[in-house]
Specification:
The chain has about 450 residues and is mainly alpha-helical. Helix content is about 75%, strand content about 5%. It starts with a helix and ends with a helix. About 0% of the residues have low confidence.
C-alpha cells in the first residue's frame, strides 16, 4: 500500500512538474504555431485574392487589347483604302502630266529637227554660194566688175541726193567741247600768223619747241592745271610762261604758247592737246612747203596698216608709262625695217606722237595723225578696202562719187585685202559704207534661222 501511495505521490509530482514546467512552453509554442498557421492562412487568402484580382485584370487587359487591336485594324484598313485611292489619283495625274510633257517634248524635238534641217540647208546653200562666188571673183575681170557695180550703187546714192551725216571732224577737235573748239581755232589762227614768216628750219624748230613744252607740262601736272584753268585775266599766265620758257624755246613757240594759256579750255588735258596739235601742224606745213604732203599721207596710212596687223606692237607703243625713249626707238626700228625710204616729216610726226602719248592707243593716235594730214588740205580721208588694186579709172571714179556724197574733196587710202572677195568696204570717219561681197555672205550666214 505504501508502495502504491509512494508511486502515486511520485506520479503526482511528475504531473505537477510537467504541468508546471512543460505545459506552459508547449502551450506557448502551440499558440505561436497556431498564430503562424493563421497568418499563413491569411496570407494565402490574400494571395488568392490578389491572384483572382490579377486574373480579372489580365482578362480585362486581354479584352481591351483585343478591342484595341480590332480598332487599330479597322483604322489601318480605312487608311490603307484612303491611301490607295490617293495613290491611284496621283498616279492618274502623273500619267497625264508625263503624257503632256512627252507630247511637248516630241513637239520641241520636231521643231528642233525642222530648225536644224533649215539651218543645215541654209549653211550648205550659203557655202555653195560662197564657193561659186569665190570661183567667179577669181577672174580679175569679174572681180573688177563687182567694184564697178558697187560704184554704180554709190553714184545712184549721190544722184538721189543722199549725203553723209558725218561731222568730218578729225584730229584734236573731234572730242573737244565748245569752249575748247573755239580756243583751238584761235590757237591755229595764231599759228598760221607765226608760221607765215618761218622757213623749213624755223617750222622744225617750232615743232620741237612746242613738243618740249608739252613734255614739261605732262611731267608737271600742277603747272598744266594752273595754266589751263579758266581765267578772266590771262596776263599772269602769260608772264609765267615767259619766265619759265623764255630763252629756252624760240620766240615763235613762245608766242604760240602765250596765246594757248590765254585761251579758255574745257579741261586741263585740252591745253596739251592744243599745243601738240600746233606742233603737228608745224611739221605738216613744212611737208606742204617741201611738196611732200601726198608722200606723208601715204606713209602715215601705211604705218597705220602695219599697226592694224601687229596688235602686240600697238600694246608696246601704247604703254605710255614706260620710258618714251624706248617707244620712240621702237618706232624708228619699225620704220627702218620697212624697206622703203621714210620721209623725214613722217618719222618726226610718228616720234612726236609716240613720245606724247597719254592714254590714247597708238593706232588711234596714228589714225588721227593721218586724218589731220589730209584734213590740213581741206580733204576728207576715205579708207577703202578692196580685194585687189583699183584701176586708175576706178580710183578716179570712186574719188569723184565720194566727194559728191560728202560735199568735200576726198583722199583715198586704199588697202588690198583678198578676204573681202569683191566690191569695196569704205570708212569715212565713223561712217562705213559696206559693199564687200564677204560682208554680204556673212550677213547671209547670220540671217539663217537659229
Amino acid at each position: 500500500m505504501s508502495t502504491f501511495i509512494g508511486q502515486l505521490v511520485g506520479f503526482l509530482v511528475i504531473i505537477w512538474l510537467v504541468w508546471r514546467y512543460v505545459v506552459p512552453p508547449v502551450k506557448t509554442m502551440m499558440k505561436n504555431q497556431q498564430d503562424a498557421v493563421r497568418a499563413a492562412l491569411d496570407e494565402s487568402a490574400a494571395a488568392a485574392k490578389k491572384l483572382a484580382d490579377a486574373d480579372a485584370m489580365h482578362t480585362k487587359a486581354l479584352e481591351d487589347a483585343k478591342n484595341e487591336a480590332a480598332r487599330v485594324t479597322g483604322e489601318a484598313k480605312t487608311d490603307s483604302e484612303r491611301i490607295a485611292e490617293q495613290l491611284r489619283e496621283q498616279a492618274q495625274v502623273d500619267a497625264e502630266r508625263i503624257k503632256a510633257q512627252g507630247l511637248q517634248q516630241v513637239q520641241l524635238l520636231r521643231q528642233q529637227a525642222i530648225r536644224d534641217l533649215r539651218a543645215n540647208l541654209g549653211i550648205e546653200s550659203v557655202e555653195r554660194a560662197e564657193e561659186l562666188v569665190r570661183a567667179h571673183v577669181a577672174d580679175p575681170a569679174a572681180q573688177a566688175a563687182t567694184v564697178d557695180r558697187f560704184l554704180d550703187e554709190l553714184e545712184a546714192m549721190a544722184d538721189s541726193g543722199a549725203t553723209a551725216t558725218s561731222t568730218l571732224e578729225t584730229g584734236a577737235s573731234v572730242n573737244l567741247r565748245a569752249a575748247s573748239r573755239e580756243s583751238l581755232a584761235a590757237l591755229v589762227k595764231k599759228f598760221d600768223e607765226v608760221a607765215d614768216g618761218l622757213d623749213a628750219d624755223g617750222l622744225t624748230t617750232l615743232a620741237a619747241d612746242l613738243t618740249a613744252v608739252v613734255k614739261v607740262l605732262i611731267t608737271e601736272p600742277s603747272l598744266n592745271k594752273h595754266l589751263a584753268e579758266p581765267k578772266d585775266d590771262s596776263a599772269p599766265a602769260e608772264r609765267l610762261v615767259a619766265k619759265l620758257f623764255e630763252g629756252k624755246i624760240g620766240a615763235p613757240a613762245l608766242d604760240v604758247l602765250k596765246t594757248a594759256v590765254s585761251l579758255r579750255w574745257s579741261t586741263e588735258a585740252n591745253l596739251l592737246d592744243g599745243v601738240e596739235h600746233v606742233a603737228r601742224l608745224a611739221l605738216l606745213l613744212r611737208a606742204d612747203r617741201d611738196d611732200e604732203s601726198e608722200d606723208v599721207e601715204d606713209q602715215l596710212f601705211r604705218f597705220s596698216l602695219v599697226l592694224d596687223e601687229e596688235p602686240r606692237l600697238i600694246n608696246l607703243l601704247s604703254e605710255y608709262t614706260t620710258p618714251a625713249a624706248g617707244r620712240v626707238a621702237l618706232v624708228t626700228k619699225v620704220l627702218d625695217d620697212s624697206g622703203t625710204a621714210v620721209n623725214k616729216t613722217v618719222a618726226a610726226l610718228l616720234s612726236q606722237t609716240t613720245e606724247l602719248l597719254r592714254g590714247q592707243r597708238a593706232d588711234e593716235a596714228v589714225d588721227d595723225l593721218a586724218e589731220l594730214a589730209v584734213a590740213r588740205r581741206g580733204e576728207v580721208v576715205a579708207k577703202v578696202d578692196a580685194a585687189a588694186e583699183l584701176s586708175d579709172q576706178q580710183r578716179t571714179r570712186l574719188t569723184e562719187v565720194l566727194s559728191r556724197i560728202y560735199g568735200h574733196p576726198v583722199s583715198i587710202q586704199l588697202n588690198t585685202d583678198p578676204a573681202i572677195l569683191g566690191g569695196l568696204l569704205i570708212a569715212v570717219g565713223d561712217e562705213v559704207i559696206d559693199g564687200a561681197i564677204s560682208s554680204r555672205l556673212t550677213a547671209a550666214k547670220t540671217g539663217l534661222p537659229d
